[in-house]
Every structure is written in structure tokens, then in C-alpha cells.
């Protein structure tokens, strides 16, 4: 299976991780809480224990699959020539409260098998409006399922972003990252054509 498949599985696992960690990411030393801002918008409610906060789900979806792939390495599992699922190789130590463990093989997300890139993207897209996250997996040959309700209604912006057949665009940074290579056609002959 392709790297694209690993990316999609990673995004789905990130949602499970948010539930296992209370939806919070580790950060530096805690600062004093800021005074509550006065606004007309209602305060965001915390999700009940064992549920995913809709805002956390949407944040992960909008960050894209690479966000989790940097945190959870996986490898494909093939038995008797058939693709089975994705084996979790490691989880960060601060995700120890999560039901999933290294060695577990994830086979489906919300009922969608994770065999082809199209399946993986369909499962990822469906999470934008899903009411729960279901991860079917195997542990030591025994089938299991992790089910976490998603607390709160989906935002229209997120649902709209995932209506298309391609991933939503992430906002660009003000400063380009990486290396830019500009190639010019010097009018010479191509080396591939065999002419010199």
C-alpha cells in the first residue's frame, strides 16, 4: 500500500488519540489562564469523558494526514497474499491512555476497509460529518472495535471543505519553506532523445 494509505490511516488514528488524551496536545509549561473574553458566541463545551470534541476532530481533519504520520508510524500487513490492515509500530508515550497499542492492526475506519487509497480518503472525508469514530482492529489475532462518539454538530465550513473529491487546501505560510529550483530550457537537445 502507498504512503497515501499511511497518511489516511494516520489521520484516523489521530482522532482516536485525541479521545485517549482528552483532546489536548502536550505543550510547554502552563501559563496563567487568560481572563475570559467577552463575546456574543457561546463558550465551547468540553466533550464528556470517552467522547471526541467536534472541534478537535475538525482541527485534525483540517491539518491533514501528515500531522499524525509524524507521530504514529505504521506498516502494512499482508497474510496469504491478501492485504489485512495497518500495524501500529509505536505510539507516543503521552498517548498511553488510548485503547490502541503498538502491534494492533487497524482494519477498518467507520466500516470502510483500508485497502485502497480511495477507501482511505473516503473514510477520512466521512469523518467531517460522522457522529462517531469506529476503528476496527486486531490484537494478537482477536478482532476488536474502538467506538468513540463525536460530541457536537459538524461545522458547515468543515463539511463544505470535504465535499470535494480532493483534500482541503491548507492555508499557506507567509514565508515559503524548502528549496525552490528554477530550471530554464536552454534550447539544447534533450539527453533522453539520444541526440547530441
Automatic annotation (TrEMBL):
Leader sequence segment:
1-26
Q: Which parts of this chain are annotated as the region Disordered?
A: 26-49, 156-196
Q: PROSITE patterns given for it? A: PROKAR_LIPOPROTEIN
Instruction: Decide whether keyword Oxidoreductase is in the record.
Output: no
Keyword set, alphabetical order? Hydrolase, Protease, Signal
Going by the entry's taxonomy, the superkingdom of the source organism is recorded as Bacteria
Composition-biased stretches (Low complexity) = 171-180
Spell out the molecular function terms from Gene Ontology: peptidase activity
Record-linked InterPro entries? PDZ_sf (IPR036034)
Biological process GO terms, please? proteolysis
Q: Does the keyword Hydrolase apply?
A: yes
Protein name, UniProt field: Serine protease
The record lists the lineage as: Bacteria, Pseudomonadati, Myxococcota, Polyangia, Polyangiales
